[in-house]
Amino acid sequence: MEIIVDKDAEKKYLDAEYGIAQKEVTMIELQEAVDKMSQDMAEALAEIGTLAESYAKLSLSGSFAGQVEKSVRMLELTLEGMRGNGTDAGTIEIVEESLNTMKVKLQVVEQAAAHAGKNVSMFNFSKWKSVANKCIPWKH
Fold first, then answer.
1. Cα–Cα dist 118/128, whole Å
2. pTM for the full model?
3. Cβ atoms of 127 and 120 closer than 8 Å
């Protein structure tokens, strides 16, 4: 008895086996990427928790600039996490704009803190209004 092998069927079979092997390799690579992102997110969340705890310990009468710095750092961590997990570009752009706005506000607060020792009345905002108008990109 002679066995006849259909060459087309054999090629299809071998191609299918190769395709399955490629998909298995891709699945392993994807799982490794997901595991790495999960680890990165866990570390970022732990750092956010540490920052939030540090923020909670700040005195209400303490440094406002320090609180704004913590907010900036939390936004930076959030942005890193979003970039790492494949968040869409539009959302990342919105967070980047918010981060840039917070950085400008931090700069204004730091300037105000530097001048606080010069008896600037807290109700005399005319000096700071011109600074804020130059620094903060108001949306009309």
1. 14
2. 0.41
3. yes
Residue found under tokens 């959302």: 91
Domain limits for position 20? 7-135
Q: Is residue 140 part of a domain?
A: no
Tens-place pLDDT, residues 2-35: 888 899 999 999 999 999 999 999 999 999 999 9
Taking only the tens place, the pLDDT of each residue in 54-103 is: 766 665 434 677 777 888 888 888 888 888 888 888 888 888 888 888 88
Distance separating alpha carbons of residues 113 and 64, to the nearest angstrom: 9
Kindly state whether residue 2 falls inside one of the protein's structural domains: no
57: which residues sit within 8 A by CB, 6+ positions away? Answer: none
For residue 76 the two structure tokens come to 């930076």
